[in-house]
Design brief:
CATH class of the domain at 23-141 and 191-244: Alpha Beta
Low-confidence stretches: 1-13
Number of helices: 10
CATH superfamily of the domain at 23-141 and 191-244: P-loop containing nucleotide triphosphate hydrolases
CATH topology of the domain at 23-141 and 191-244: Rossmann fold
Distance between the termini: 33 Å
Radius of gyration: 20 Å
Oligomer: single chain
């Protein structure tokens, strides 16, 4: 992983409490309810249209949608960023995007090239691209449940389901795999640690959101994010989402199965059930 210049600051600052926000980034990891949160925020019509605009594997799809692909099949990244900001911005000028930890390195590196400032700090480059930027950190306390959800989605290729949409037929029947789930647990923990370390290194105190709170009261939580952004919901506007929860009894069975196998392999419940209680 390329080492970035983060330019540490003295003390922590909450960029949600410094007046006008031009943009905000939802910083997260897979299977935290981020699609639900993005949908909720977009439904307000005043909090941007957050999507994973900067995920490298999807760049060509976005570029084609925005009609910025050249005849040689490539595109200018500066033009890509401008198109992303236009797509992700609501009429009041607020831009929003979703960023997974694995995307941050790539995005900052590309922005450094665009602005001919490879030695600039991460926050400076993000501000050059998106203006005065706030940060929402979305994480899930139950990392095991998150890993199980991720493992199942990778097998079935069913990542989301709309409210009125019938259950999709998976491309293949999901199978429990202890080793794969364990790797995902470790990946999630590493990425959460990396996000927290990055926030500390650039002196940011993000607005932190727990998946468990989002799941319990999605509309209420979305309202709580609007307030520190300094945004007020238009009269009569409802916050709503098209997406519904995918977890079911199979997820619960896999969680129990994982705990049992971990306890057997370690000979201690401290590393198993107690850790993922």
């Amino acid at each position: 992983m390329k080492k970035r210049v983060t330019k540490p600051r003295s003390g922590q600052e909450s960029l949600f409490r410094m007046g006008h926000i031009d943009s905000y980034l939802i910083c997260t990891t897979p299977r935290t309810g981020s699609t639900l949160l993005c949908d909720l925020m977009a439904s307000t019509t005043i909090a941007g249209r957050p999507e994973s605009y900067f995920r490298e594997p999807d760049e060509q799809l976005w570029a084609a949608r925005w009609d910025i692909v050249r005849s040689d099949g490539d595109f200018e990244y500066s033009e890509f960023v401008r198109a992303a900001v236009s797509a992700g911005r609501t009429d009041n000028g607020v831009f929003a995007a979703r960023i997974m930890w694995g995307t941050l390195d790539y995005l900052v590196e590309r922005l450094g090239r665009v602005h001919a400032a490879p030695a600039a700090g991460d926050l400076d480059l993000l501000k050059l691209a998106f203006g005065h930027t706030g940060f929402v950190y979305l994480h899930r306390d139950d990392v095991l449940a998150q890993a199980v959800s991720w493992h199942r989605a990778e097998q079935t290729d069913v990542w989301h389901l709309a409210d009125r949409e019938e259950s999709k037929q998976p491309e293949q029947e999901p199978r429990f795999d202890f080793d794969e789930i364990h790797k995902l647990v470790q990946t999630i923990e590493a990425h959460n640690s990396a996000w927290r370390a990055w926030f500390a290194s650039v002196g940011i105190q993000p607005h932190t959101v727990r998946y468990e709170d989002l799941d319990a009261d999605p509309v209420g939580l979305a309202r709580e994010i609007l307030d520190p952004l300094g945004l007020e919901l238009p009269p009569g506007r409802l916050i709503e989402s098209r997406h519904r929860r995918l977890a079911d009894e199979l997820n619960a069975q896999w969680i129990d199965h994982y705990r049992a196998e971990l306890e057997r392999s370690t000979g201690s419940s401290e590393s198993g059930k107690d850790r993922f209680a």
